[in-house]
Amino acid sequence: MVRKVVWQVLPLITFLIQLTIASPGDDLYAFLDCLYQCEEITCHKNPYHIIQEEYRRELEASPGFEFQYYNGNWHFDDMPLPLHLRLLLWNCESNCDYQCQQIITRERKEHEEEIYQFHGKWPFWRIFGIQELASMIFSIGNFVVHYIGFKKMCRAYSSREADANLKYAYFNTILISVITMGAWLCSTIFHIRDFDITERMDYYFAGLTVLSGFHSIGARILGLFRPDRKLARYIFGGLCVAAYSAHIYRLVTDWLYTYNMQANVTVGLLQNGCLCILCYNLYSKYYELEQGKSMNLEHLNYIDFKRIILPSFYSSSPKLYSLYPLILSTIVVLGMSLEIFDFPPFFYDLIDAHSLWHLVTIFPAYLGWYDWMIWDINENVRDEIASLVAKKND
Question: For a Cys staple, 271 with which of 137, 214, 253, 349, CB 3.0–4.6 Å?
């Protein structure tokens, strides 16, 4: 089923990526004319429009000469740029690019024409030199909630330090939080300033986040936390490392946005499929316990009732609490749909679908995802290991 969903989604994702890369705004004659005018007058101090008029007759007689359009209503920043822009590595050429995006977009709005993307991005309003303020703020928000979760996982691990059998399960979850924090840090930097290096680091860490999540949940389903499965643990971990290394090698040698998105979507769907299996297994476990009139309410010790969706429902029994990650993953999937139904920025040209997607991803980590993982390790993983040890001793 998961494989079928993957191949249904990938063509749509590929089509959307191709539309983004095309960026029709880049080829607008008005935009190209604006860039030429800004760079010649502002960066190169070349008053080409005056020279064209003064020597018009001579230039018209020159073979191959092409007159460049000039618009006296286009005004550009004087040089040098303010310090805050130079600190964020804006130069005359990149500043001209930004100004022309704003100028052409404003003109198109005045004439009620379609708003276009430039270089794969919407023409956002720059604030203090920051290219995408909303996406940057929401990326910081994601970093903060995962940092809080990271500290919570570390405290939980320290309180269970005497049980060495839980070390592997905790290591996997703590590793995810560290990688995820790195990903949101790279996302923050990328949305401040879009360079090749910041873009690639953002993409590299995004892929690592997805794959590490798949590794952790896959290892949980396969029971690799068990002491008798250490060899399988190393093999599975080695395969994931090899897959990620091959992914990075592919991107370094042949950078393709389409491939990168296809790879992340495929692994992400597999990860969600594994999560569904895990929730089903836990639900079946507690369903059988309830049928046997054995009610375990230990899950209440892990729930923060101020930070959980539908607390009266999911806290009523461990059977229902075992399904809690499904609603969190549903939030993520619904948020991802914002990327499909993309739209130009609003609210002073600061907020777009991508920034709202970053906003949505804050909530799952804040609303109990780490609490649920701690519960799963301390109660379910521990029980499975205890059962294994008891069978060996019999």
Answer: 214
